[in-house]
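Please, why this fold?
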Amino acid sequence: MELSHRFRIWAFTILVVFQSVYGFYLPGSYPHKYAVGNELFVKVNSLTSIDTEIPFSYYSLPFCEPPNGIKDSAENLGELLMGDRIENSPYKFKMHTNESEIFMCKSGPLNADQFKLLKKRIDEMYQVNLILDNLPAIRYTQKEGFLLRWTGYPVGIKVKDVYYVFNHLKFKVLVHKYEEPNVARVMGTGDGAEVIPTVAKTDSDVPGWIIVGFEVIPCSFMHNADAVKNLKIYDKYPTAIKCDPTTVVMSVDEKKPIVFSYEVEFEESDIKWPSRWDAYLKMEGSKVHWFSILNSLMVITFLAGIVLVIFLRTVRRDLTRYEELDKEAQAQMNEELSGWKLVVGDVFRAPDHPALLCIMVGDGVQILGMAVVTILFAALGFMSPASRGTLITGMLFFYMILGIAAGYVAVRLWRTIGCGDKTGWVSVSWKVSCFFPGIAFLILTTLNFLLWGSHSTGAIPFSLFVVLILLWFCISVPLTLIGGYLGAKAPHIEFPVRTNQIPREIPAQKYPSWLLVLGAGTLPFGTLFIELFFIMSSIWMGRVYYVFGFLFIVLILLVVVCAEVSLVLTYMHLCVEDWKWWWKSFFASGSVAIYIFLYSVNYLVFDLKSLSGPVSATLYLGYSLFMVIAIMLATGTVGFLSSFWFVHYLFSSVKLD
């Protein structure tokens, strides 16, 4: 009876957990209930363009300002780093109340600078980004029978050398009736109400609504400037406004004002709260993602076969023959040995620049760990596009925490190369904490000066620079030193064979070994390039990337391919008596960064053909360089650690005096 009772409790607990996870929407915040007539306030984000990739403030153009002044919304660290500047706007609705011909404001006559700037923003195809209840405004257009979705709407359009501005907006707000959470109903059990009391409804008599969609149609309408002289904001325009998105009439002229207005319509929808982001995140081209994974699996299978042959047929056979001989025969055989068996006294000789290798491996562990944990959390829904900036914030957080792992691995490898000598572990730890962050700081500071010169909202404010430096030196550096201290205390890895005092001469090779190392990067790139296209499109084409499940699978496959490629190349180098495998194993898989950078240049030339200006191209190449350095460290670390394990395992099986 007691066992049965415990089983019931456990089963009931598991059921409650699963149902609560099902009912809780991780990506967004808790649904906000609005009563009919409640005020809804629209916010504005930075103006963006795929032509320049330089964001600007919404109020840098002569748009209407809120009656109570411009106020910044609370932003997290990730939003600031991404260039988002969310501010209040004069657009205001009443829940479930349709309104039309709402007058906003009349701008002053456009001066020469405003006229020139407005035309420039229209030429550069800048988009206005509006937000209601954390939902970006979405715009639908038809092209060749296909329905296209866009976030935001263009500032204006140029037709036959005449510039037109979209000065009237038609909003549609999709709402769904609020459903009061009821645990007993979610459970769906007949006697659930007796076990779990229903949640008390405080204002159940008042019908509530939640916002599940926000659409906008921009129009260009010629208002009568004289008719709005005595109108105040939110007054009704005296004549009907017909919003026709197919025609434009409000031209932009110097010394002439622009009148702005809007209308709003509410529509009840069957879309529920957890599904309200589906319009932005519709999965298109999922077959391409599966093709990418299948392609990666084929590469992995091919390389796994080679690794299997190396282990089972070559290495095992040689070791078995070697161990079956007596000592005299072994000595005779040593004189006749060829390949990897000849470098047994040199294979663990310290590499050139050992400290730099340890530093790069430590930083690679930190970057790889950050990528795995961040993408895993994003795949589980904790860092979806509904939560702006959380992806970047999470990456920074995990990177700082994993400084412990970076310091530990780097110092332990340093001690292993030095045969247990602890001397210099503090210096290694300090350099690990400054190497990659220093490179990132140098690149981002240079790019930031370009953004500052352009007066872009993408420029990191000086105060945020101070915050980032404090996070670096007050959190990341101490954690890396703690990891280094733990690595200094941990036992070093002992080499299975002794190293000769005199280095063995490496025979002349038919082909340069570095040529093979550089060519090896094509295999990891082959597993990554399809997913890389979607990532690049998300970053530079303004599309939402959310298929983190696919990305996590591709990341795991990339790690496996990098390990296999480096392992095979290390074995090939040892077979031709090249015992300098340390750096080659790192760059065998790390060379994938070269191909990613070349792909980035190709993407710039052929896919971002509209990217205008040297500043935009410099920003693109600078961010691409930052990305490929991080990828090189992460993939190179995977290759080196797998090769180190392979070489240690291989020579630990050889018994020598």
Remarks:
- Residues 1-28, 182-204 have pLDDT under 50 and may be disordered.
- The longest strand covers residues 208-219.
